[in-house]
Known about the structure:
The complex is a heterodimer of chains A (500) and B (292).
Chain A: H1 2-21, E1 29-33, H2 48-58, E2 60-61, E3 63-65, E4 71-73, E5 76-83, E6 86-91, H3 105-115, H4 126-130, E7 132-139, E8 142-147, H5 154-158, E9 162-163, H6 166-169, H7 174-179, E10 187-193, E11 197-202, E12 215-220, H8 224-233, E13 238-239, E14 255-270, H9 282-291, H10 294-300, H11 329-338, E15 346-351, H12 358-371, E16 375-380, H13 383-392, E17 398-403, H14 409-413, H15 430-441, H16 445-462, E18 465-478, E19 481-482, E20 497-498
Parallel strand pairs in A: 1-12, 1-13, 15-16, 15-17
Antiparallel strand pairs in A: 2-9, 3-4, 5-6, 6-8, 7-8, 10-11, 11-12, 13-18, 14-17, 14-18, 19-20
Helix pairs in contact in A: 9-11, 15-16
Chain B: H1 2-16, H2 20-24, H3 31-40, H4 47-59, H5 73-108, H6 113-127, H7 130-144, H8 156-186, H9 189-196, H10 201-238, H11 244-253, H12 257-285, H13 287-291
Amino acid sequence: MIGRNIVLAALGAVGLMLPAVARAADKPVVIASVGDVSSLDPHLLDSNHPTGSVIWSLFDSLVRRGPDGADLPRLATSWEQVDANTWRFHLRHDVKFQDGTPFTAADVKFSFERMATAPFDAVQQLVEQTTLKETRIDDDYTVDLVTEKPCTTMLYWLEEAFVAPKAYYSSHDAAFLNSNPMGSGPYRFVEWVPGDHVTLTANPTYFGGAPAIKDVIFQVVPELSSRVNGLATGDIDMAMALSPDSIDQANTGKSRGVHLLGLRKQHFGISQNSSVKALRDPRVRQALNYAIDVPTMIKTIMRNSTSPLASVVNPPNADPALTPYGYRPDLAKQLLAEAGYANGFDLTIDFSPMWGQDKEISETVAAYLNAVGIRAKVHANEWNDFREKLSNASFDGIFYAGWAALINPAVELVIFTCKQEDNASGYCDDKYDGLVDRAKYDPDPKSRAVALGQAQDIAWHDAFWMFLWRDPIFIGLSNRLVYQPRPDDYVEIYLAKLKN
Amino acid sequence: MVLLGTSFFTFIVGHMTGDPVQLIARENATHAQKEALRHDLGLDRPVLEQYVLYVGHALEGDFGTSYRQRVSVGRLIVLRLPNTLELAGISFALAMLLSFPLGTLAALRRNGPIDIIVTGISMIGQVVPGFWLGLVLVILFAVKWQLLPVSGSGTLAHLILPAVTLTLPTFGRMTRLVRTGMIEVLGADYIRTARAKGLHERTVLGIHAVRNALIPLITQAGLELGDMVGGAFIIETVFAWPGLGRMAITAVEQRDFLVVQACVLVTATGFVLINLIVDMLYAWIDPRVRHG
């Protein structure tokens, strides 16, 4: 009897809870990500999503990066280069932080100087990459950025440098600021339950107008299948990091799966610190590239969601003269024979479950290499071990990796410069380094473009990678959401709308 | 003593598995930036020094700050522990409340239809892996019939699927044990004597049979409670349940040592407490333990 009452009570309680689960028109938009934000301090921004997506919603930068890499106004209305080492920015007059204090040049100076101090300097790149040495206030709405070297990538790095209100950020301690952000952005902070979710609500007084969607929740959903299932039930409006295998399951009555070309370049790095001497011969490295059928792998493993790489640099900066290697196993065998390896050699292929389909891709490549006589075997790594091998350039053969999800040739090319952290192929050549340096700092755009083209050509023909494809991004979107995902993984939810 | 040993072991082994800075640093971080980060997090000191500092602070109730999220570890535990206790507690209670009556019933009606059904269900509970069961339940109840949410927490409805998933294996093992134990006890001489005295069947079962069958069951129940916390680690990930287990797994993946350390300490404390309670229950149920 008692037992029956308990069961009935339990059922009743469930019944009462169900309306809370039911959908409502003003239900918050839920963005499901694999992991949690690492910090809500704008100057500890360390990854594009979800941390970057949340920071972009709460704060403003001087310049906004468009999805195609274009430099667009945000807190700055316009800018000019006064001389080779000075950039001048004109700021908006109508911006208020969310506590009502007006935004001025003093906040910019405060933020950029804060970024140069510990612990922020260990994460931020503005100062390091631009050689910024002084942020000078000309008047309340004009600020000059003075660099040590001529800087051509200033706008790019400013797009990830967010302005925090000086008054608020200088009157609270680091631990408090880490979880209580306050900026001028399109959304206000509501709550952060670490490991579970971040909730934001629209800022009605945003200078660009209040965003269309009122409440947004960045939810942590580590399981791929749970993210897909949540789309089907309508609990999730945007499911990040789906896979080629699961993208079809995201097409439900309530949602659709979309894929777009990402910016990260997938490749097999070819280690120069290897015990396999053959890998130091450029003919062998080219042979490795000719031996694999990239278009077929794209068709089968990647479900036609991407296209072969034709440079180490992303468009629009890629040298148009370069074309993919193509599948030419006979040429591969011929090159191997010319280099004195007609009978092949032993080769280890390292991979780690990081970029998706890592095992399938590595095993397929092993099969292609075996077909031209190279005795390849795959070796699985735990991510932390793999990460250390990347950092120490200590792989013994080739390794599957992705690099540089951005449009910034100066950064994309550094992967092959001497002593560069994560230059795991271990390539080192003074001529190449000189070209990259020119591509980065040469104030003359023409000479810069020439250096950029030459550096790409060297990287391509010296073949320190086996070039695969641009990493595709798979996202599930609910049908009520109107949003165009970005190739760099940032989610600008303030640009999204709901269908009526 | 157990706790100190556990913490030392976790600390040293944790630090042997790799460098958290490699995982925390952003993609194009320079060597200098990684060094700065290492210094900032105190990871550039010798491991033993780090451990001594850690224990010193821990004794004052400060369990440090997460490397990854820069949030106080104490606060993370306070946020997460109640969720795990809620899930494991309810699942445990459910398993016990179901397995004792059903196991006894199956023992009394040995080889009858009830026995076959109960034994069948408990068998399934024992052999089916938890994460698989969880996914199947999600597909049926959340996706197909849309009765319950897929994952997350907050309402009672969110609790049902993970709790059922976590309950079933324990229910399976306990029911079979109760059944076997009861069958054994019911065949014993003193039960026959009790029945022969003309005692009511309820008294025979309640006083004589259950009490004698209880000792091995309590040992098992203690173990099951421990298992439940372990099982919750996986189930929490499947259902995105914001508990201690999921936090521990994420922390291990990210080499967020201080968080791992705190999770291990809390779990170890839990085990010590469970053992203590089990021992006390022995004494309460079996007079021989008390007087011995």
